[in-house]
Each structure stands twice: as structure tokens, then as C-alpha cells.
Amino acid sequence: MAIIRAAALLVLASSVGVSGVSRPAIDSYDYIIIGAGTSGLVVANRLSEEASVTVAVIEPGSDERDNPNVTTTVFGTGLNTPVDWVYSSVNQSRAGNRAFDLHAGKAWGGTSAINGMTYIRGNVAEFDAWEELGNPGWNWNSIFGYFKKSEKYTIPTDSQLAAGATFESQYHGFRGPLHVGYTPALKNGSFAPVVRDTWAGLSVTHNPDLNSGDVRGYGMGPQTLDAALNMRWDAARAYLHPAEHRPNLKVLKGTVKRITWATGKHATGRLVADGVEVVTDDGKSTVLSAKKEIIVSAGALRTPLVLEGSGIGNPRILKSLGIETRVDLPGVGENLIEQPSHFLLFSGDLQDSSASAYHSYVTIADLFGADVAAVEAATRANIPKWAKAAADASGARSLDACALEKVLKIQHDLLFKHNVTAAEILLAIAPDNVLASNYWALFPFSRGSVHLKSADKINEPLVDPRIFLADFDLSIMVAAGKVAQKFWLSEPMKTKGTVIGPIVPEEVDLPNNATNAQWQLYLRDTVVANSHPTGTAAMMSRALGGVVDPELRVYGTANVRVVDASVVPLQVSGHLTATLYGLAERASDIIKRTTH
Fold first, then answer.
1. What is the rounded distance in angstroms from the CA atom of residue 483 to the CA atom of residue 371?
2. How many other β-carbons are positioned within 10 Å of the β-carbon of residue 383?
3. Beta-carbon neighbour count of residue 22 at 10 Å?
4. Does 476 reside within a domain?
5. Other CB atoms within 10 Å distance of the CB of residue 136
6. Which of 248, 282, 454, 572 is deepest in the core (most CB within 10 A)?
7. Residue 8: which pLDDT band, with cuts at 50, 70 and 90?
8. What 3-state class would DSSP assign to 69?
9. Distances 36 to 109, 254, 477 between C-alpha atoms, Å
């Protein structure tokens, strides 16, 4: 195998540098990628297509290709296992004063090795808004071809079509490395027509393809799996395994502590990175040299920690950590956007083993009906208050309230003027005929942060998503919960699904026809994080608090880029996986085109 374990590659030389850091026998690559996750492996594959280019990927996780908790298409088996970081947040004062778990993959493939595998992109306007945030050339049209480039769509079987799977071929790619399709367990059953008729009665229409750029309505979302093998198709299986024979591509096991810098600067005055300091599992440190570029792909909760450890971030925070400031960039680790999520479970007796699961996307109009105009005005009026609250919570010079106001107004217009979807309601039949809804707010106005807790504890970040900092997020959750509850209690679902009664929450905790106040109280005590973090190294103009430019280069540096969920400046209505594959494919071409 051409991918050599770090234990074999990082053979320490006998000499020790002045910093006490040793150098390995093989220590120089054109590109070093920090993180073998969803985005990092796309970039590693594409850059190493050129045989003359050497690429090293540094990853603290391992090769889990034979781990049944990874290969299975049953969601949840990998959570809270050794392949899950399970980061814990600080207590959330507006959500029961509880700490939240945020799940992220610790393996080749990153979070794509443990996520729900859903492949849904989002609405056109959401990607077009990236341009408005200071990123010329980033919009739906520019990324759509890269969605298709990454995808290898499997057309549903007749049985899957009868069970509710639908598609429109013009929106899919059929030659990419990423298998996208439906589980073979999906077969015709009684659930599909009942879902159709119940949503019709609630004026939620069927969406023939959730990947068309318009997700409003309900449909059965495809997943990143190989239907023939009934196997999860994560980023490692899609992008790394086919390339592991390449002698110019190495994956090294270890944790990057920091980026190292050359003595001089680029002609533009920007910092030039010359390598990374890597800590192996046995605690030894070594340095790898980068001749061209360093790409940080550690994920939205780790990438800011790598940057801060390297001296890039808010000087106030860096000083408190004993780290010299190399680039004054207050946006690092700020603008964390995490979606609040919740479940409703009902007991029923719908005898159906078709493995059907439906994604239902609703707009502000669907949630608030005749009150939309009043909700729009109140929401816009509260933006300055929410921006100030986020800035105050982050501390001096971290967030600029005026800049955040501009970002939140763009988000407001997406919801109220462009009518992008505001909430997702996932419907499924769980084991023992439990009728289940998982629902969440797609575009929270709250903003949190993630920072180093100490210079030596990169695996223990200080995560504060600030759930419900903006009270409108709670209003969205109440409205979405009511719609989800109404679905199960409406005909024909109530009768044909033989809905017996609520399980979670029990009626004593949240009665049917509960008031908004009762819903809010219950949600504050029981809401969870959706583990869809974005924005902590946002691709936005520097004036708006951005961290990377439209070429994904970190401001103030000549050859450090970020390619992962941290650069996504706003949430998307789809699930992040699809967006990250398209983003990383486009980023790979940008890197090839702009590397000097």
C-alpha cells in the first residue's frame, strides 16, 4: 500500500532543533493537508492526480474501512464510539443550562464516516448569497457542476420508486467517485401513500428532487451509500481508497499542533507557511515541511484551533493562551452557527418495514401563515439586538456588531424575501413501530464560538454555540414542532398509522394543543445540537469578520487555505455533506489554478 503509516514514515532523526522539535527522515511535501475528513480527502485526491506533486495528509484518526460501525448504513452506530470526537459545549444558559454534545468523525473520512449519509444540497438563493458576503464567483451556478462531478448517482429500482423515491436526472452526476442512492432495505410499503395524503392535507407539496436547488416540500432524500453493497460510501471510500496506490500521496497519523512560518514574508507582505508541527500518539513532536501550500481541513470545530495555535486569530485570545500573534484576525473561531434540533415520537401500529424516511422542508409562510408580515418586521427589528448580544458574548474585538448586522440581514432576506426553507422535519418509522420526527431550525440567528481552551489542548476545544441567544430561533423551533405534531395527528396518518399517543414528549410534559409558552419551556430543557457546525473560518470579506478570501486563502497569509465546513458562511437548507463535496471539488481546481 502506498499510504504508509506515520509510525513508519515519521522516523525521527538524531538531531533536535532549537525548539526541541525533531524532524523525520522524510519531511518535505508540496502540499500538506491537515485533516483526512470529508473535504480534505477530496482535495488530497485531486491534487495528487498530478504525479509530480507530493501530498501528505495528517489525521489523528485511523483507517476504519473494516469497522462495522462505519460501513453500516444504519445511522447512529458510530456515534459515541472511538470514531466520534463527541465534543462537549459549555453549559447553555438559554437551554436548560446544559452542556451539549457535538459529534464529529475521528477517522479517515471524518464526519462522513459517522453521519446520517443524507445527500441534499440546499436552495439556489443560499449559495448565491455567498457572493453577497464578499465572494465573487461563488454561487449556485459555479458550484452546481462540482456537485455533479463528485456524484455517482444510482437510479432507484422499481421497488424503491414505488416506496416513494423520486428523482430528475438532470440534477445528478453519474460518473463521480461518491456513490449516492437508496438503501436496498427501501421497498414498497404502506407508509408512502399515507405520508403523501397527510402532507397534501397540510398544503405541503411533494418535491420530485430535493437536489434541484429548490428543497421546499417533502421527498425521500438519497444517501451517500453503495446500494449494491449496502455500504456507507464515506470520503475515504470515495476519494482515498481509489488513490492509495499513488506513491505521491501519504496519510500520516498524528495531530497538527501548529503551522510553522518562514523567516521572511511574501512580496505582498503576507506570511509564508513552511511546514507543520505534528504530535504523534506517543507524544513526540516532529515537523513536516511544505514547499507549496498548507490546506487546513480539520472541520468547523478544529480548524480554528489549528489557526489559533499558529498565531492566527484575535490577539486578545492569543495573548491569554501565551501565543504570539502572527495575523490579527478576530473572526477565527467566531460566527459558529449550530442548528437547534429536537425529536417527537409517537406510538403507533403502522405495520411497515419499508425503511422509508422523508425529509420535509417548510418555509416561514408554512410555519407562521397569516402572521408572516408581522414576523418579518419583528425579526428585522431585532437584528441589531441579536448582533450586539453575540458581539458582547464574544468579548472585545472578537465580533463586530455592525458587521454581523449586515450578515444577519442577508440571512433575513433569504428567509423572508427569497423564501428559502426555514425548518426541516424528518419523518420515519423507528423500530417497534415508533413514529418519529426529528426537526430543526435551518437558519438560526444565534452565533457562537469555538476557541482553544489552552495552547496544549487542541482535543478539548472551548465550544459555545449559544443556542437560543436569538429568541427567534426558539420561535422557529416551536412552530416546526407544532407542524411535526400536527402531521402525526392529522388524517389519514392518525387513522392509518394507528397513532396511539405521544412517547417523547409525554403528554404530561407537553400536552396536545400546548401554548407557545409551554412549548418554549419544554424545548429549552430538551433541545439538542444538530452537529452541523459552520462559519468558524468564514469565507466572507474581512470587513464582515471573514477568515478566508474567495480563493479560500487565510487573510494575511500567502499559502495557507481552509477547505471544510468552517468556511461556509451561512447554513444551508440541505445537509452539509453534499455542500462540502461540491465545495472541496471546486476548491481543488482553485488551488491548482492559483498555486505559484
1. 15
2. 20
3. 18
4. no
5. 9
6. 572
7. very low
8. helix
9. 6, 11, 34
* pLDDT score of 430: 84
Q: Is the pLDDT of residue 383 over 80?
A: yes
DSSP for 236-276 reads IIIIIGGGTT-TTEEEEESEEEEEEEEEEE-TTS-EEEEEE
Q: How far apart are CA 459 and CA 452, in angstroms?
A: 9
Closest C-alpha among 547, 21, 455 to residue 260 = 21
User: Is 415 among the domain residues?
Assistant: no
Torsion of CA 482, 485, 489, 490, to 10 degrees: 60
Residue 92 DSSP label: B
Cite the active site residues: 532, 575
The SS3 of residue 381 is helix
CA contacts within 13 A on the Cβ side of 141: 3
What's the CATH code of the domain at 76?
A: 3.50.50.60
Percent of the chain predicted with pLDDT > 90: 85
Q: What is the 3-state secondary structure (H, E, C) of 422-466?
A: CEEEEEEEEHHHEEEEEEEECCCCCCEEEECCCCCCCCCCEEECC
**Contacts for 81 with CB less than 8 Å, ≥ 6 apart:** 69
Q: Does 267 map to a domain?
A: yes
CA distances from 1 to 57, 242, 243, 249, 363 (A): 15, 11, 10, 11, 50
CB atoms within 10 A of CB 404: 25
Summarize the confidence of residues 433-441 as an average pLDDT: 94
Rg (CA), the chain: 24
Q: What is the mean pLDDT of residues 103-120?
A: 98
Residue among 362, 481, 370 at smallest CA distance from 420: 362
What is the reported pLDDT for 350? 80
CA 219/CA 164 separation, integer angstroms = 8
Q: Give pLDDT, residue 25.
A: 41
pLDDT tens digits along 275-326: 999 999 888 999 999 999 999 999 999 999 999 999 999 999 999 999 999 9
Q: How far apart are CA 489 and CA 376, in angstroms?
A: 29
Element of type H or E holding 565: none
How many structural domains is the chain composed of?
1
Residue-wise pLDDT for 314-363, tens only, equals 999 999 999 999 999 999 999 999 999 999 999 988 877 677 789 999 99
Half-sphere exposure of 424 (CA within 13 A, CB side): 27
The range of the structural domain enclosing residue 58 comes to 1-116+233-289+302-337+446-465
The span from the CA of 493 to the CA of 593, in Å, is 54
Q: How far is CA 512 from the centre of its chain?
A: 34
81/279 Cα distance (integer angstroms): 23
User: Which residue's C-alpha cell is 482553485?
Assistant: 590
Is 254 a member of any domain? yes
Tell me: cis bond preceding 82? Omega within 30 of 0 counts: no
Mean of pLDDT values over 238-248? 97
